[in-house]
TrEMBL record:
Catalysed reaction equations from the record: ATP + protein L-histidine = ADP + protein N-phospho-L-histidine
Assigned EC number: 2.7.13.3
Biological source species: Oceanirhabdus seepicola
Lineage summary: Bacteria, Bacillati, Bacillota, Clostridia, Eubacteriales
GO molecular function: ATP binding; phosphorelay sensor kinase activity
Name by which UniProt lists this protein: histidine kinase
Amino acid sequence: MKNFKNNYFKYIFLLIFNFFIVMFLSTTVYSLEVGAKLDHGTVGGKLTCGFNQGKYATELALRVLNGENIELIPILTQSTNAYMFDYNEMKAFGFKTYNLPKDSTVINKPDDKFSISKDNFKFGLFLIIVILIINNIMLHINISKRRKAEKSLRESEQRLRILINAGPDIMGFKDGEGRYLEVNQATIEAFNLEEIDYKGKTDVEIGNVNPLYKEYFLTYKESDDYTWERGEMFREEEIVPQKDGNYKVYDLIKIPIFHDNGDKKGLVYLGRDITDLKKSDEKLAKSEERYRHLVESSPDSICTHINGKITFVNHALTKLMGAKCPEEFIGKSVFELMHKDYHEKVREHTDFMKKGNSPRIIEVKLITVDGRSIEVEVCDTNYEVEGELAILSIIRDISERKRAEELQKRIKEEERRLKEAIEYERLRNEFFTNLSHEFKTPLNLIFSIVQLLKVKDITKGENEDKFNQYLKILNQNGYRLLRLINNLIDITKIDSNYFNIELQNCNIVSTVEDIILSVAQYIENKNIEIIFDTDVEEKIMACDPDKIERIVLNLISNSIKFTESGGSITVNIYDKGNSIMISVKDTGIGIPENKIGVIFNRFGQVDKSTTRNHEGSGIGLALVKSLVEMHEGSIEVESEYGKGTEFIITLPVKILDEVTMKKIDNNQKQDYVERINIEFSDIYE
């Protein structure tokens, strides 16, 4: 606007200047050649006039004002001449003015001193009118622009004021002397300025008006002075008291403004109410302090780590590790604290925890600063810190507990051994008691029969039936003694690893079937039904036929002893592909549930009394179990007391390189009879 005004007045000045030169200058401007001759007898001629000179001067001035370099504007050396005549000279010589050339100018006429030509007057008048019109237009444009600018400024100021007052933050302006120029509504409410004329007053003056704020306003002044002294933005927290006795805390920013010469010009301040945030921070700080005190006073060792790097340890862990201060561990890897044997275990555990799984406990060994090994129990919990997964580890020294557990384990082991020794001693005593009974019974019978034969002098010829009966008793009890001795020898060999089995490929089905056929008549004489069934006619496998025979005869002998007359014994063979299952099932008295677990023990019997109804040493089933296991098989028992018992043998099917089928000849059949007599020797008529 300023430049516009300056240029405008320059143009007006030049126009007026040109007008006065051209229209009102009465003195003729002569050239050097002609001007010297006028008034000295020269009537007139072609001369340079003021109009042309003024026109050229105006054009030259405009070009300079428009910014042209004056040194580059050419100098006019030849002016355009016009006819000019002196009226007095013409009058002296009798010349008439109407005879002059067209467009000639006559000077020194008596009435021309203050007159102008008609055309020049019109031009001058037109020029003045144009100047006035342009001036009015320019004034109107200038006023309109000023009004628009003022309106825009007022609207902008109004918008700014609305914007400032709409926010909850305090805002204000001060001059270079610290006097308040303007504040927003939030400041008025915060400082209770509703009834105080604050404009133009300093903090000290406002403090004197309102004693409640006096101390605080003095503090504000000191803060302003410090901000100006710094010469740059300053940020601080200021406390503002409230009428209800409470206070508010503001996060305040102050910006100093200076003149070009460095003098103070003003100060702008912006503030935000952070009271709730400060109170929350105070509560959080108190809470953190309580938890920190709790963590530090905890007897358990505690540490936190992010991505395997330790970020915190408490004093308990510092003491446990034998360190001087917690800072020794900050930034270290958790693996530096652990025994290398547990690194992989801890990695797996950490990966498990990173998946967000619930806390779990692991046991590891820590290596202290002085190299000692400590067994600890670690319970980890996940939590988040600034978007990163962190782990809180609670570590408990379990060295004493481990030692106690180890001691307890040794005590239990010693107790177990003691109980086993006591049980073994008890079983040994029972065994020898039972063994003495087993030996004494057949020996007593043998001696009794021999004594009877001597006393009564019974011979075969006189009473053959009675003699044969006595002879049978002698024979049976002899077999009974032999069976007992054989079992004792075999069980001793098994315990000493001197007992071997001789495997050969044979048909297990025919082997078992031959055994059943050899005892069928004996069982039927007891009025007990014997049934044999198989789902396969032939199954070649590696086994020891003698030991299989002994196993089956022992189980059948047990079934006969505990099955009443009219009962039945069933032997089944099942082909399971890779194994063979042999089942011996009876309808006898069965086994009580609490005795099933002991029947395969050495010297174990369901009825251990010397007055029991059935004879036996108690090592038969233990021997059977050992023989089955030597075939890499297993034996199980299923029984219901009062309904019967089933023994189930499972043997793996294996084939030896050389197939040697065992064929039973007459001598072997005779061996069967001998073995049957031995195995059934404790079954009395």
